[in-house]
Design a protein that fits this description.
It contains 9 helices and 12 strands. With about 425 residues, it is α+β, with helices and mostly antiparallel strands. Helix 8 packs antiparallel against helix 9.
Length: about 425
């Protein structure tokens, strides 16, 4: 028994479609083959997207020319019925068909022969294949329905595979880009870490060479200042003493900043914050007699416990107290308060100093930024940057409230 030529051709077409992996070439081959095999004048491939919206993927005539504005060149009534019923629709002369002749698109386009079949793969409706001929009624017959249905089923399988293949390639490309970006970021991070380590090593080495002579100068200046037979030179010696102390503080701050930059995280362990505040009270109270300031510590009786890095938290609070001393005129007050509220721990450092304008508050934690108010600009602008970095590594917050000429409040907020 001889196989009908149409089936031989359809089997060959099916093989060719199965070998085509890219969607666009596949759709073009499906369209050209359908128009040629079934003698269509115009052809449309309509696919449904994830939101079940109609996407006119390809529209062309039997001359290989693309049809512009395909959504206006098709009978939506016929297309709707094909998609709803999932069955082929054949009309020999749509303009006279009792079902479709009243459709506006049929009248406007003067449609004659139309045959449309659903594109179904593994039970999934992908869209429809729509062929028409406006010049020849009865061009398509019932004998075309089954071959076109078979053709459409094979086309649907190939389309679904191509869609999956395109999606897979898109995912691979996205993943490749993500990996490339991650690699680039990792390389940058490693480079930054190397740079940070080089800077840290340099600062630590330089600080060692600075500290020794500065300490000697500072010690000798202090000894000279204490001697009784240097009348008339006190202010010069005091100047030497103060400036070497300032440079030593800068060196220490640079070392601290470099050390913090080189750390990924701090070792947070359980500590009694009351005891840390008492330690700070002893340290800072010894410094207050040099200034006409009153330092008040408000520490609760009940112990407040938190996971912190003891040394770095203590340093952060001391930096805030030193900052308050810097910007509080003689005769002022500084308050240090520890308290618990709403499952959070608060440490406030409040001063009655010169205060700040609201617009500069976001900048005060930048490295080397200094508030210059009424000649009070002192230090090198690293203290608050160190505080910010320490709190950042504690996953803690810093709040700043300030009013010009009335003072500032720096609030550290820790989790219990």
């Amino acid at each position: 028994m001889n196989t009908p030529p149409i089936l031989i051709k359809l089997f060959e077409v099916s093989r060719r479609m199965a070998e085509t992996r890219a969607l666009e070439p596949l759709l073009e081959y499906i369209m050209d083959t359908a128009l040629e095999t079934f003698d269509g004048e115009n052809g449309f491939i309509i696919l449904l997207n994830e939101r079940q919206e109609l996407i006119y993927r390809l529209a062309r005539n039997n001359k290989g020319e693309n049809i512009p504005n395909p959504e206006t060149q098709i009978s939506h009534s016929i297309l709707h019925d094909v998609l709803q019923s999932r069955q082929p629709i054949l009309t020999s002369n749509a303009i006279e068909d009792p079902v479709y002749h009243h459709a506006k698109s049929v009248e406007a386009l003067h449609l004659a022969s139309v045959i449309a079949v659903p594109l179904i793969s593994r039970g999934n409706l992908l869209g429809a294949l729509y062929l028409e001929n406006r010049s020849k009624p009865a061009l398509f017959t019932t004998f075309d329905v089954d071959p076109l249905r078979f053709f459409a089923s094979q086309a649907a399988i190939s389309i679904e595979n191509a869609l999956l293949n395109d999606e897979l390639e898109a995912r691979v490309q996205r993943r490749t880009k993500e990996l490339a970006l991650a690699h680039e970021l990792l390389q940058q991070e490693m480079l930054e870490q190397k740079r940070a380590q080089v800077i840290t090593n340099f600062i630590e080495s330089a600080s060692h060479h600075f500290r020794t002579p500065l300490t000697i100068i500072n010690t000798n200046a202090d000894l000279l200042r204490r001697r009784a037979n240097i009348t008339g030179y006190e202010r010069y010696i005091t100047g030497i003493f103060d400036q070497t102390a300032a440079i030593l503080n800068l060196v220490n701050s640079l070392v601290t900043m470099a050390q913090l930059d080189s750390l990924d995280q701090l070792e947070l362990t359980s500590h009694n914050l009351n005891e840390i505040l008492h330690e700070i009270q002893i340290i800072t109270t010894q410094q207050i007699p040099q200034r006409d300031l009153t330092l008040h510590f408000e520490i609760p009786q009940q112990a407040i416990i938190a996971n912190v890095d003891h040394d770095y938290l203590r340093q952060a609070i001391i930096e805030l107290i030193h900052n308050a001393m810097t910007y509080t005129p003689d005769g002022g007050d500084i308050y240090v308060r520890l308290y618990r509220q709403d499952h959070q721990i608060y440490i406030d450092v409040v001063d009655t100093g010169v205060g700040m304008e609201p617009e500069i508050i976001p900048m005060i934690f930048d490295r080397f930024y200094r508030v210059d108010r009424a000649g009070t600009s002192r230090g090198f602008g690293l203290g608050l940057a160190i505080v910010h970095r320490i709190m950042e590594m504690h996953n803690a917050k810093i709040e700043v409230m300030s009013e010009l000429n009335k003072g500032s409040t720096f609030r550290l907020i820790l989790s219990e």
